[in-house]
Amino acid sequence: MIASGDRIVAGVSGGADSLCLLFLLLKYARRVPFRLCVVHVDHGIRQDAEEDARYVEELCAGEGIPFILRKADVPAFAKAEKCSEEDAGRRIRYEAFREAAEGMGGAKIAVAHNSNDNAETMLFHLFRGSGLKGLCGIAPVREGVIRPILCLDRREAEAYLEERGIVWRTDSTNDGDDYSRNRIRHHILPYAESKLFPGAVERMLRTAEMLQETEAYLEQQTREALETCRTKTPWREGSFRREPGEEALEVEAFLRLHPALRRRVLHMLLKGLSPTGKDIGQAHVGDALGLFLQQGNRTVDLPFGIIVRRQYGKVVLERRRDPAEKGAERDAGARMKDHGAWEAGPVRLPEENSGDFSVYDLGNLGKIEFTAFSAEKSGEVPKNQYTKWFDYDKIEESPVLRIRQKGDYMTIADGRGGMRHKSLQDYMVTEKIPRQLRNMMPLLASGNHVIWLIGRRISEAFKVDGNTKRILQARLLGEGDRDCRGSETEEKNV
In the CATH hierarchy, which fold is given to the domain comprising 7-215? Predict the structure, then answer.
């Protein structure tokens, strides 16, 4: 948890647990040097809270430890956020801890949870109908937060202070049964320890450790399973799923997962879309799961403005944007900027066999490189999704990189040895390209004639044939300007 030279922010309320943590940290600092700072939060609930703050401040002054006091109005915050005072207090405390940690240049946060807190948390989550992760209780280390006395029970912490003559403060709000955790603390756990199983808290701690190991393994399996069914973009693998506020899954691939992994995958994605990462329950997961199990394009609305919809063999999960964002999305240019930050414009065609090339940035889609060479020096026409050859001399009007516009069309084979024009809109509908993607897909066009809908098909009118003399090559580049390693072959009609 702590290494030499670390910076530690300790949350100290003045109660027995937090003072036990403070003095154990001070003792450990004599063996492993690290910088320590104390943060105390006044929740604005108790009249005697200022006395607690002064007491902790005096202790810190005596030990030469920097002290930070944060005052808050927890009842007002809870009312504004429509949450319990218990949840509001926790959120405010961790915000204060993180601010102090950032002020120290990235410190770890030490809090004083003990084994009783862990047992209470496990029962609280069990009674609420939590999944496996909730039953794991409190992790000793998670996301920059350490809990050095999680292995101690409350009586051990108090005994440690009593042996050293250290007085602790008592929070009167812990004496009542207003909070669910207090009722578990005052009634259920003591009954279990005295009437059912002496040592129940210690046994629950061991169970939590085993469950945490199991959860860590399943978390890894869930992430791997997610990658097997995440939708790939129509133009480039990997970028669609990285758009902020939107995810998509292939129905067939998803249904091949074990049922337990299906629920975990959906829960992971829905939590990622919720603003707090909380309050997504199994009922919400079940609503989303139903879209995979029933045919037809349908939509379900979930909390936090999350929409889950089935379309064309995929299920898309997204969060509604506010009205200002929606207005901006009506403009195709704004949508391009929001979803890729790439610049549309004319393409400079390089000279044949000159070694010259031109490269254009397509934002999060990568880069596209153009080169030219004589057909005599060419080999077999590439069959992968990301490298295309065109007959240079058939491109009469200077090509541009852009998104679709009214009047765009492609030339396709008519099945009888001839060719015909097909509007780009009709092509996108036929290929079941989601409406939300159509105004974001980059294309290479000569006037309204689409040369290449990038990542999809090229127009028949620009294909290389036996009469081709010069070849224009367009290649999508990955990280470090390497060729995208797409293993997929072209569509049968490309």
Answer: Rossmann fold (3.40.50)
